[in-house]
Amino acid sequence: MTIKMNKIRGSVIAKMIAWVLCIGGALGTAAFGYLTIAGIECGYYNMTRDEILAEEYRNVNASYSMDAFLNMKNRHNQKYLAEEGFRYGIFQADDLAKVDFQDKTLYMDTNMTDDELKGLDKNKVFLYQIRDLANDGREGRSYGYVEDWEDLSGLQSSSSHLEEQDGFVWSSQYADAVCFDAEQGIFYYRSDEKYYPVREVTMYYENDFGIVNEYNYVYDYEVGKYKLSYYNNEYGIVYEEDEEWVAEGTAGEWNATAVEDKVDRLLKGDETQQYVDFAALNRSVLSYDQWGGLLLDQVREIAGEELIAIDSKRIAKSAFIDLDTAPGYYLDDYYTLHVAQEEETAFYWVASLIPDDSTLITRNSRYYASAWVADLFDMYGRNACTMAVSFAIMTLVSFIFLAYACGYRKDREGIVLTWFDRLPLEIVSAAAFFAEIILISILYMQMTSREFRDSIEVLIPFALSTAVLICAIALWYVLSCCVRIKYGKWWRNSLCYKIWSIFRNAFFKVFRNIGLLWKLLLFLMVKTFAEGFILLAVGDGMLLLLWFAETVLLSMAAMYLVIQMNELQKAAKKMADGDLSYKVPTEKMYWGCKEHGENLNKIGDGLSKAVDERMKSERFKTELITNVSHDIKTPLTSIINYVDLLEKEELHNEKAEEYLDVLERQSSKLKKLIEDLVEASKASTGNIEVGNELLEAGVFLTQTVGEFEEKLLLSGLELIVKKPEKPIYISADGRHLWRVVDNLMSNICKYAQPSSRVYVNLEKENDVVTITFRNISKYQLNINGDELLERFIRGDSSRNTEGHGLGLSIAKSLVDLMGGSMEITVDGDLFKVRLNFKLQEGAEELLRQREENNEVQQENEK
Fold first, then answer.
1. Separation between Cα atoms, residue 505 and residue 695, nearest integer Å
2. What CA–CA distance (Å, rounded) separates 89 from 350?
3. Could you state, in order of their start, the residue ranges of all structural domains in the chain?
């Protein structure tokens, strides 16, 4: 079963079938879902096909009626509607009962011929009322056939709903001032020399006891005064029905003086209806310029002294606005006054004829589309819900298979990404989004365009193809997301992640490379900004001052601590670099840092002592090797000399000659070992004279390696040398470098796999020159490169070849003495040695100057 599923999920044919089923199912679900919802909303489930058709025709006539009105007197539109099968006439009438629908002079615009008007059946006339608004807005309502009404006067009265709806035009005006009528005690907004009463006023008054009271008033347009809505003191909000209780409980505290008592009475208004006389309040001891804060219509705050005093008796009454001259106005948050004005309207009637099936002129008309819809609902409407669910299940099943199979390919393991899946997710999302927006816009234009809307046979293919593209792009995008999720770490291929990674890496790179002091400063800046922002929002001055002092002291202490830690870091780095004599000054450090600094000093003393002991031990070893080598060398020389003398004698004994050969071979081997030991000792202690000079690395390498061509051929090895054409100069001792190369090439001849290639490369990278030797070893190398550089370590553990394991150690010491470095890499049977030297810039110019100086010197000597 698993094998079959793996084959199916990688099958292209299976995926294509699933694509078709998924897109077809989505379109089917949408179509039958829409059919179901339309049937429920329009009530088609309880209607026959003829009833549905009649209802659709009514809707078409209403739509055609509005089109005819919008294009009144347009002959092209008259002809177009006539071809569509729509006959109409537009007229105005106060009493429909007196209208003669056959009178051509009745109509302001019509496309009915004289013969059609003469044969017009009044009862078959379809009526549609249109309300034309002054701001280019229009409303319409269908009233059906004339025969549906016993009395047209009833139809006339039923249309009053349009007339009763108040149409307003809202204009925005700037309120340039807030005025106070000192004679009437009314607050006004002034705009364009008109005065609009403030609907709601809230006053904040502080009495002699320091208590701030809040009084809220609402303007009564009929009375022309402000009425107390509520007031608020330290006891809470008090409404007018609770006024008597508060007066009894707090009279001793509130009315301590006669002045306060008078002001309190004026602010609360008369005892019966709580109407407030602000004019009387202004004439009292508390004039308007002494009032506290005022809040107008819960929007605009203003002080009493900012009010502009006016005298309404000196201003024309027409300048003052009431509900009759301005049905509505309000102040917004931007202090802009919005004023409503009544809109002029006109009413029109459109009388039209609804044709039957036999009168349809073209198949492109909306009547034909309505008949098509009626037939469609008659055939599938009652099963639309079931079919929508079936298509939805088909869509879901096919999508689940596509989501499971996406990313898999036949005969390939794992998830395979296409070029589309490798694009950044944001780019794919943006492309899919804009493509969907464009296609949906095209589909909308198709559905609303007159050319497409009126031709169902043209609309369906275009709309269906556009819908298929919309579904295909959406499915492609979703499946691409599924592939990315299944592949893993999908977010890594997003632009946001890449940008975030760049900034994150840059931040951490900078953060790692700056000192502790700068890190602390960065932390303190962020901390100070965050705390300061919060405290400024709170607005407590004393708390802000304490925080500032705390921040300064804490920052100074932290910076002093960081300076000490920086000193500890400096000491640790000095010790790591080999300067064990450096001491941490711990006199003025914090206790913890001081203890840590003293420990570092002790570590330095201990390491210095250990290094001295190690150097002393190494020196003793070197002296021992040198002394022992010299002591062995004297008797060994005698042995070699006597063996040489014996070889010149005629022994006439095969056994003796054989023993003599062994003596000669072993004594020579011992001599070579002693010489290597002495050489290694001198090289490791730096007791060898090094005379570095400028060497052209390419020429030197060609000459040195060329001497081993014959040996390499005898060993069945093919030498491949690669070097750049331009000369490369290094600083090295020619004798010692030849010794190093000789040792490496000798090892290659001894240990390289026969019938293989040997690579010698000369490369330059930045300011480093590298000579690389590579070969395949004939013996298994179970050792790393660093161990091969130690003394008496050999690559062939069986020791069935010549050598003592000192050659590479001597070579490394010689390279180090020349200022270079030597690295050995062992990768399986691949053996690689890298010699690194510093590139000598300007060597050619230096050599040329030397040659010129030599020529000048020779000429002077002559």
1. 42
2. 6
3. 170-342, 514-576, 601-687, 691-847
